[in-house]
Amino acid sequence: MKILLLALLLLSHNVFAEPYAKADAMAGKSLIEKNCISCHASSFGGDGSAIYTREFRKVSTSKGLVAQIRNCNTMLGLKWFEDEELNVAKYLNNTYYKFTE
């Protein structure tokens, strides 16, 4: 019984873990520098990072962050693979958002 309870606890922890926990943040940073900054800077000024820190930003969860990145990927025709999207999410979360799940 204790083993079953422990297994369920471990599984439930993984369900709620950030979706990009094993991603490569430095690879994500490179993708952002190459594909995102110019657009964000033209819309928000400076280096474009205000899009991530504005008071009424759209993103409020880890899953929402991944969804927004996926949306940009699709709309801009970047053709990133899922692992690249997750790399970007990890970098943005580490740098700006700080979501824990």
How would you characterize this protein structure?
The protein is built from six helices and no strands. It has one domain: Cytochrome Bc1 Complex, Chain D, domain 2 (Orthogonal Bundle). 68% of the residues lie in helices and 0% in strands. Helix 2 (25-35) packs across helix 6 and helix 5 packs across helix 6. It has 101 residues and is mostly helical. The chain starts with a helix and ends with a helix.
Give the arrangement of secondary structure elements.
Blueprint: H1 2-16, H2 25-35, H3 37-44, H4 50-53, H5 62-76, H6 82-97
Q: If classified by CATH, what would the architecture be?
A: Orthogonal Bundle
**Largest sheet descriptor:** none
Strand content: under 5%
**How much helical structure, as a percent, in the residues?**
55-70%
Calculate Rg over CA atoms.
Answer: 16 Å
Per DSSP E runs of 2 or more residues, the count of β-strands stands at 0
CATH topology: Cytochrome Bc1 Complex, Chain D, domain 2
Whole-Å distance between the termini? 28 Å
